[in-house]
Amino acid sequence: MCFIYYMVTDSRFYEVFGYKPPKIAMIHLAGDDPVSQALREIGIYEQEKIDAIIVENYHGSIFDVERTLEAIKERGTKLVVGVNILPNEYMAALDMAEKYGADFIQLDHVAGRY
């Protein structure tokens, strides 16, 4: 039991989010101007004390994700920022997270087929 407790409490997750369950909002990049829409949504999430956002290309493209991450980096935010590139493009997500200073990536699948 102690070993499991150590594994959980020594996780990078807690370095990023602390020891409370985080409230994470999705940025899906919809609309005619997804970058501006994303920045407006981030302002709302900051006011509502959301802990983190995940920028995802659900309604947009990988280029929309990159433009949005660039805009977030320029604007700045106290939110924890994550990246998800569908369909499970983890290498692209890792590259963008590193390039734009995102804190984590989300994967929809970690084993098996997508």
SS content category: alpha/beta
Total DSSP E strands: 4
Sum up the overall morphology in one term: globular
Q: Indicate how many domains the architecture comprises.
A: 1
Across the major sheet, the strand order is 1-2-3-4
The percent range for helix content is: 40-55%
Beta content comes to 5-15%
Distance between the termini: 34 Å
Mean pLDDT: 89
Helix run count: 5
Order of helices and strands: HHEHEHEHE
Contiguous low-pLDDT stretches (5 residues minimum) are 1-7
Radius of gyration (Å) = 15 Å
**Main beta-sheet strand count, sense and barrel state:** 4 strands, parallel
Task: Describe the model.
The radius of gyration is 15 Å and the shape is globular. The protein has helices at residues 2-9, 12-17, 34-47, 62-75, 90-100, and strands spanning 24-27, 52-56, 80-84, 104-105. It is an alpha/beta fold. α3 links the parallel β1 and β2. The longest helix has 14 residues, at 34-47. It has one domain. α3 (34-47) crosses α4. It starts with a helix and ends in a 9-residue tail after the last strand.
